Amino acid sequence: MRRGLAAVALAAALAACAPAQGRDQSAARATQRCGEVEVVPIQGGAHLLGDQPPPVPYNSVPPTSGWHRSGAPPIGVHGAGDALPEPAQVAALEAGAVVVTYRGLPDADRGRLEEIAQADHAGMVSVTPYDRLEEGEVAFASWGALQRCDGLDPAALAAFVRSYASREPAAPH
Questions:
Q1: Which sequence spans correspond to the domains of the chain?
Q2: What is the pLDDT of residues 89-120, one digit of tens each?
Q3: What pTM value is reported for the model?
């Protein structure tokens, strides 16, 4: 009996951490600069305290689910001085945001990416540098989905956001 109750409690906890499902994912697809959207298995995890690292590695780079930071999601543009660590990226994903990571973008492309995120996708996108990508790579991540691009592709970003960002982010817990 206890095992059954524990399983129900675990399922409820994992469901509470997952953003709303049922979005139309047909818009996001491969482009000249971006590969196909990868479906990544949802990794279990819970809230981390402070700057505590996750107890197990994430199952994708950048992460698409798993252990995450508590509190308000870090949605918005983050520069080199306040780059989002992986648990903060997953916290934004949990809230229904898309996290756009990049490495080594030319200044003009980085500025354009930040402008697009703020003007066209405010409240739905976090942008952050991420040193685990290849030089010049940009990645779009959502809860359980990942698309990698060779540089900035604004149309692919817009399609990914339409397909995967939640219009009603989950409340932090």
A1: 2-164
A2: 999 999 999 999 999 999 999 999 999 999 99
A3: 0.84
